[in-house]
Amino acid sequence: MPSSSFSGLDLLATPVILVDDELRIVYANPAAEDLFAFSLRNAGGQPLAQLFIDSGELVASLGEVLGQNWSYTGRDLTLTRPAHASLHLNCVITPSETSAARFLIEFRPIEQQLKLAREQRQMDQQQANRELIRNLAHEIRNPLGGLRGSAQLLERELDRPELREYTQVIIKEADRLQVLLDRLLTPHRPPQFAALNIHEVLERVRSLVLAEFPDGIRIERDYDASLPDLHGDKEQLIQAVLNIVRNAAQALRGKGRIEFRTRAARQVTLARQRYKLALELQVVDNGPGIPEELRERIFYPLVSGREGGSGLGLTLSQTFVQHHRGTIECESTPGRTCFTIMLPLE
Asked: 24 has which bridge partners?
């Protein structure tokens, strides 16, 4: 039966291979081709055992299922393609309901499962953060306005000018807190989507950061000029990237190197959805790195590794990226910190 008969499996984010009674490959979806780095055109009709160097455990499992005709789940399986790194996988073998294939084998990369679980935790945490922030901001806003108004009224009654310095402190701090509250509530504006070039976003960020740190920051660019336009909110994406780059410049104390890198990524799973094409945007700096005790919490609100920082910049960046159905991750060691933003290009 032609592979078009299994076209419904093409859109699955999970790698799937179908084999016949003789354990020959009948079909593999694009996710499986991508995972195992082979082409169905070349591998179709070949024994599954020839696909891997170490297929003994998988073939034995298939033989067991063949004899019992029931589903089987294999955990922590290692499979290696010739000239490729070993893959650590879980797999589910299910008897096929079609006449063209005997078994459907669904592979689940353990690293990918951990990544999906981490993304889900981030999404759940982000939702909880948004609710907490919204409730907290509304609770603070009313008494803050009363505090500022009372300080203004008190200032009018004071005869000694030196005492007005204290009321000015109250008024200025109240204004600062009001700005903070406005920033907390800003992410709830829905994005305004339009076609845009990601490199225009990066060039805008670059000009802003170089204007703020004119002497010692060097921003290098490694752009893929063939990238198609992105469908997104330009202002939100500028702010998302700007928060990351400004943090990097501050960590470098105004002296160091930051790199912008863009690439196309194919067959990518973002927030449990599979995309044929995505944008990979990396912001890399050669600063001291993020302290280990903060690495798991850097996207939480009010968490900052810098004295005087609000701890809101990366929280806002994550929110804006999630508005675009994307993900943001960070890897950091002394001398290299890399933020990776993945955004679908479909």
From this structure: 47
Taking alpha carbons only, the member of 279, 293, 284 closest to residue 331 is 284
User: pLDDT tens across 134-188, in order?
Assistant: 666 667 777 878 888 888 888 888 888 778 888 888 888 788 777 767 766 665 5
Most confident of 127-136, 286-295, 307-316, 329-338: 329-338
Reported confidence tier of residue 189, pLDDT bands at 50, 70, 90? low
CA angle, corner 113, sides to 24 and 38, nearest 5?
35
> What average pLDDT does range 119-147 have in this prediction?
70
CA 262/CA 271 separation, integer angstroms: 20
Burial of residue 117 (number of CB atoms within 10 Å: 0-12, 13-18, 19+): exposed
Return the pLDDT at 127: 66
CA distances (Å), 164 to each of 145, 156, 159, 244, in order?
Answer: 19, 9, 9, 39
- Per the DSSP assignment, residues forming a β-bridge with 338 are 284, 331
Long-range CB contacts for residues 305-310, cutoff 8 Å, separation at least 24: 305/251, 306/247, 306/250, 306/251, 309/250, 310/180, 310/183
pTM of the model: 0.55
* Domains of the chain and any CATH numbers: 8-113 (3.30.450.20), 190-346 (3.30.565.10)
Q: How many helices (H) and strands (E) does the chain have?
A: 8, 12
Q: Where are the alpha helices (DSSP H) in the chain?
A: 30-36, 40-43, 56-68, 110-157, 164-185, 198-212, 234-251, 313-323
